[in-house]
Amino acid sequence: MRFSLILTLYFAVFANCSRNPVYLENNGYRTVLVAIHESIEEDSELIDRIKEIFTDASSHLHPATNYYAYFDNVTILIPRTWSDKLKEADATTERFDIANIVVDQPHPHYGDNPYTKQILKCGQPGEYVHLTERWVKDERYSWYYWGDPGKVIVHEWSHLRWGVYDEYPIEDNEHFYYDENGRVQPTRCSASVVGESLDLYNDFIPCNTDPESGVMPSPGCRFFPYMRKNVGSGSYMYAQYVESILTFCHSDDDKNIEEKHNRLALNKHNTHCRYESTWDVLLRHTDFTENNGTDVNINVMPSFLVVKEGDLRIVLILDVSGSMSTQNRFMLMIQASTKYIGYTVPNGTWIGIVEFSTNATILSYLEQVGDLESRQEIISDLPTTVVEDTCIGCGLEAGIEVLEYGGKDPAGGIFLLLTDGRENVAPYISDVIDELVEKEIVVDTIAFSSQADPGLAELSAETGGTAYWYSESDESTALHDAFTDTITSRTSSSTDTPVQLTSYKTTIAADESITEYVYIDSTIGRHTIFFIFWDPDRNKNVEVVISSPDGSTIDEETGQYFKDKDIHTIMIIINGIAQSGQWTYTITNVDSKDQTVEVSIESKSIDSSSYPLRLQSTIGNEIITESPPLVIIYAEVLRGYGQVLDANVVATVERPSPYESIELRLLDNGVGADITKDDGTYSAYFLDFVNAMCIDDCRYSIQINADDEDGTASTRTVVNTGALPINYDAIPMKSDPVPIGDFERVTSGGSIQVDDSVHIPGEDEDPYPPSRISDLESPSSDYDEQTITLHWTAVGDDLDQGTADFYELRYSTSFSVVFDTFEEATEVTDDDLVTGNLDAPLQSGSLETFTVVLPTKGNGTTYYFAVRAVDDADNKGEISTVAQNTIVPIPSSGLAWWEIFLIVLAIVLAVSVVVFIVLYAYFEKQKKQKVGLEEANYA
Fold this sequence. Notes:
The protein is 19% helix and 28% strand. By secondary structure, the chain is α+β, with helices and mostly antiparallel strands.
């Protein structure tokens, strides 16, 4: 093991446990993981450039953080497809799908722009930094567009590690703003950064930024900071390429004014971080609160280790205690394990099997799966019977022995532990968990039934695994979904990882049939399998008939139909590439009693070189210990890195018995839980917790479904969080939506466990305030009417759900007054409104529009507005973002309408007179010519 985990694990509120953990020790970041995707060809120069860039980045990061931090060691993960000559060691815990920084193909919309994927609130970590091979290797290219690559890494690391946001403008209406004196200013941080404003669409001529003109600069106007000999030294989150920028903006009046945070700037950082400076956010992070302080005289050159990615090593740790004999639990466990080994795990995976009851038995040391024969051999090692008590610690210790067999390093190994009971024989989970953490073994757990030990969730959380719960209800598919998710969530970057199209249970009456449909979209079709699991309590199997889009039929008489009566499973494997379109399948219950049937359909990408549409999900907290309880559920529909927007995404949350499941629509509208509108991340708060009579902690299971039910799903260029380029032609233009078409996807969202100390609000309680309004804007003003128009997206009564009771809208000519001392600002009443009703908010997600009459106009006064929603229990939401506008005349000739009318009338009359004179002269001339001709003829 290359790095001791005796350090306190960074699993605090700001940690992103799904990614590779990074530690700060003696001012140095350790175990930073940079991973190269398998689609990139072997290249030693790429590795050399990564080393050069991060060495440069470390030298910038140290002074930028006031000498708090630098890069101490960096691990570079090369793909398993590369030769061994470049590696210095074999990978253990390192995998591409958990890397902090990935080097991969260009983003389908952002191209080679470096960016950080962020879906969490300000101060919480990003997911990963995405770099491309060209950006890393082509120095002239990256320097030309983004400046020093090392400074770009500092910018992206700030997103990733500390959860700060960009301080440059993104939307067209964010590039300029009115300051408190009514002057037009370019968006930048700090305001000490100098440059010039030029029109991109008009030969780069200087822009008009004169407020007396009455309008903001033209839509093509952009501010270009001077790259050299500038004044401002902050901020990295604005324009890292400016030579003078060496640190982040602060809010301290006693410090360098050239690094002072600009609260008025229109940017994502001010929006998401509530107008705090980057330094304010950083100083709350454990990197700074728990650091030993600054160290100027320190060697900041990082060390590097190149490791080669290995195959997955998984040990199934299966409960065979006496309770597993009830309710067909043992058979269902073997059924799910068989599907998992036979079809779900990718080729090359190493599988071991342990069974435990009073003690543990190793049934199989690690064996590698490949063809169907090797998979069947491993399946034959699965447990065959149940025994006695429950010793979960015994199973865990045996799993460690499997991973260490032959002197192997267990680090990076994965346990998939399934149990239905409470441990009652030592060693216990608490006796083994420290060893698992120290040896860097990840433990996924499946709590089989509500009686399963409550320590399972903590075991997964502490080791970086995922906890699942299968309730045994007639609706739950969580058992099979959990087995599948342990693979698909870890290998999503591989085109050989299957995707689940559908997963559900249904009851079929005796001697009855059901007919259902599934849509095979154009991104999938390879290795498509229909799994049908019939009722364990029924002796007669169901019968299945499938019809393809072209009308051909697959039934029991074809060679694609496989039935295993021992585990009550039917598998229908579609040969070759399944046709795109609607597939129909009919399931007939030939038994004399009703049957509960489970259906799961999987497929892979249409070919190994292209990505399928994939649904991914995560939850904010797996274990809830605080009151009132709440959790955010996240989901994404992706094709590679490309986001799918406007899909129909629904989370089904199964609650403890006897409460029914809840369906929760996940939205990408920038309200409440959703940070950024139209960024491809769907989310919502789940609040419907119940006071169930659980044995200890209550569990909730989550399934996510996505489709194009509304016919609106599409891909298009969306705003990313990345480094500002020097040249604006590197910024991708917004594109028109490209329809996705029909598709279906389903995945497990894991489980939530609520500590029994948590207070569940009763019907007469309302502890949840409305969400913060984060998109308040003022798109226009009217000089003649002396009004300013505002709009925002409505939030709910309880965070992002329901309808608020009323709005409290206030304004001031001082930003600080309206935001810092909101209640001292002037309140807007219904008498001040031309449109809108503050006492009648719309439902959450609706667009609100208000027009406010203001006391003065035309004197350069800037008005600042803020709003908050209030519910019927008088819970007040947080103060919104601040909108600003000024009331100045619209540029015109400067004349009144009647003056313009008289001028136009005069022009019309003048033209009429000229036309009359010309026509009169023409006809007089014709008349004279006619008379002359008649006289000539007479003569």
